[in-house]
Design goal:
- With 248 residues, the protein is α/β, with parallel strands linked by helices.
- Helix 3 crosses helix 4 and helix 3 packs parallel to helix 5.
- The longest helix is centred in the last third of the chain and has 18 residues.
- The structure holds adenosine-5'-triphosphate.
- The site of adenosine-5'-triphosphate has 12 residues, from strand 2 and helix 1.
């Protein structure tokens, strides 16, 4: 008996995201701002997390650090068991890693203005080596799911802010990333559409096993999330409210 069996821990047992004691300083001397102070968070595959906090508390700084866009000054970030950043030092090719594993939805949709809505979704897949035909099919399905398929061939400038944001959400899901990060993705949407987008993130997390972190000010949709964190003055803490336990 060689002892190798299916009881061997699978790679998926690793948390999807482990952020450990992240600190971020902007500037120096008189103008120094400490935007994150020893912020830590572990997110499991399939978990959908809300990050709340007042303006300027460091939420975007935290999210862009996890998104490998804005490295922390110190602390480590591991994604699916791989240490990707140690302070500002990258341990992997960040651009390639980001493209393969991370979907990001910004406060503003950041669509490419000279590509149609569907091309904006498709391009994420084309860059990952997907065929034109398969990427167009999936882009259309995602847009249909988000209620913007009828605007597929329009340029972003012809779409409302909310429609642009839904295209951006479709784009973030295109490559079935293991980590999805969204910075106030529903700010431009009405309550109903906003809730739909939050529910979609939860569905993607639960069905595809993606780890999702959503920065939000919208307390009305908090029941959709598995875990809620609050950030204040650069410090992250798990929320005391047990949302699943709210009965009223
Ligand atoms: N590039 C930068 N240079 C200097 N200071 C910055 C920079 N980016 C952010 N900050 C500062 O860091 C702190 C945290 O900002 P951050 O954008 O992360 O907060 P936030 O919680 O996302 O805010 P909001 O909810 O308003 O988007 C703020 O004091 C901000 O002014």
């Amino acid at each position: 008996m060689n002892g190798l069996s299916s009881s061997e821990p699978a790679a998926s047992v690793q948390p999807a995201i482990v952020a450990s004691v992240l600190t971020k300083r902007y500037g120096s001397g008189n103008t120094e701002v400490v935007a994150m102070r020893e912020a830590s968070m572990t997110v499991q595959a399939g978990e959908v997390v809300a990050l709340l906090g007042p303006s300027g508390s460091g939420k975007s700084t935290f999210l862009t650090a996890i998104g490998l866009i804005n490295p922390p000054t110190s602390g480590t970030i591991a994604i699916r068991g791989t240490v990707v950043l140690e302070g500002e030092l990258s341990r992997v090719n960040l651009r390639a890693f980001r493209r393969e594993h991370i979907g990001y939805v910004f406060q503003k949709s950041n669509l490419i203005p000279f590509l149609s809505a569907i091309e904006n979704v498709q391009i994420a897949m084309l860059l990952n080596g997907e065929s034109k035909r398969a990427s167009r099919k999936r882009a259309f399905e995602l847009m249909d799911y988000l209620g913007v398929a009828d605007r597929a061939d329009n340029l972003p400038s012809m779409l409302s802010g909310g429609q642009q944001q839904r295209v951006a959400v479709a784009r973030s899901l295109a490559n079935r990333p293991s980590v999805i990060l969204a910075d106030e993705p529903t700010a431009a949407l009405d309550g109903h559409r906003g809730r739909q987008v939050m529910e979609l993130f939860a569905k993607v997390a639960h069905e595809q096993g993606s780890a999702v972190i959503v920065v939000t000010h919208d307390h009305r949709s908090l029941d959709v999330f598995d875990t809620t964190y609050e950030m204040e003055d650069g410090v992250i803490a798990k929320s005391h409210h047990s949302l699943s336990g709210i009965s009223s």
